[in-house]
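Quick question, first post here. What does this chain look like in 3D?
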Amino acid sequence: MKVIIVGAGVAGLSTYLQLCKVLPSRDSHTILIYESHNPEGPTPSITSEPPLSKQGDLTDTTAVVGNSIALVPSSIRLLRYIDTRLYDIFKARGYENESYIFKTARGHRIAVTSTGNKGSPQEYTVSCPRYGLWECLRHVVSDDKIQYRKVVGVDLSGNKPVVTFADGGEEDADLVIGADGIRSVVKKALFGEEDERQYAPHYEGFCGVGAFIDMAIPEAITRHKSIVFTFGPTGSFGYCSAAPESQRKLGWWSNWGTPDIPDGNVVNSEEIRRQLRERHGSWKDPVIQYIIDNMNEELYSSEMQHIHCRPPADKELDKLSKTA
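> Answer (accepted):
Ran it through. C-alpha cells below.
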C-alpha cells in the first residue's frame, strides 16, 4: 500500500510514526510525507531552541498556534506508545507540571488540582514550546523522510487519488492523509464547494497572544511545579515554565474576546503591551505585571477557529475510501 501524508507538522509526523508502528509489514508499504516549506538548515538539535523569528517562516502545518503547549498525561503516554525515543526527548526538553493553579484577577486562589493520572508509571502534564514538540518529532522521523513539495490539490475522479504539486507534478496513492491545517487542500478535495459553505473555518470571537521571556522561573510555578491560570472580567492570563527550570524560559499567554481577527502572526509589541495593560493592568499577580513590563518584541497571536463537520452522506463513502 502506498500512503501520502500531506503536511509535515505535528499531525503529519505523528501519523507517520504511528503508521510505521502499526502496519503489519513495513517493507510492503510506502509512506511519503510532503511539506510545502523547507526549514533552513539540517534537522534541528533537540537540545537547542531556534530564535523565535524563525518560527514565523513556518507554514500552516508547522506554524505556532499560541506559544506554549501542555501535553496532559494521556498525550504523554501516547508519545511513549508511538516511539519511546520521542517520549524521552520530549520529556527532557519540557517541564513536568504536577499541578494546575487557578486564580482570580484579584489574586485569590480558587483551586490547586493535580495534573497526574493513576497510571503506572504516573505521568504529569509537560509544558514546552509547540515548536519544540515539532522539532522532537522531526528528529525522530529524520529529515530525509520529508519531501519538500507544495501540494495544491487532490484529484478523486479516478480509481486512486492523485496528488498534484505546485511544480506541475502528480503522484497517485492508495491512501492520502490530510495533515495540512485548517485550510487543508485534502479536505477541500473531499468536500468540494461545500468546503467553503459548510466546512470552512469559522472565527469564534476569541483571540490569543503570547511569547516567551527569559527570567528566573517564579516561585508561583516552582513551589508546586504548576501551570498558573488567572481569570478575570477582561479575559484570562496564564504562564508556565516552557523548559527545564535551569533554562529560564517562561511561556505566557493572554486570551480575550474580540469581534476582530488579528492580522498575521507577528504583531506590534507596543500596541499589544498597551492592550495587555488595559486588560490586566489592575490584576494582582506580580508575575503578570512583570511579564507585561518586560515582554520581548516577538509576539505570536492566534484566533480560535471552529471547523464545522458532519458524518459523510452515503454518496461520499467512495471518496472516503480514497482519502482521509
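Residues 43-66, 303-324 have pLDDT under 50 and may be disordered.
Residues 273 and 293 are 8 Å apart (CA to CA).
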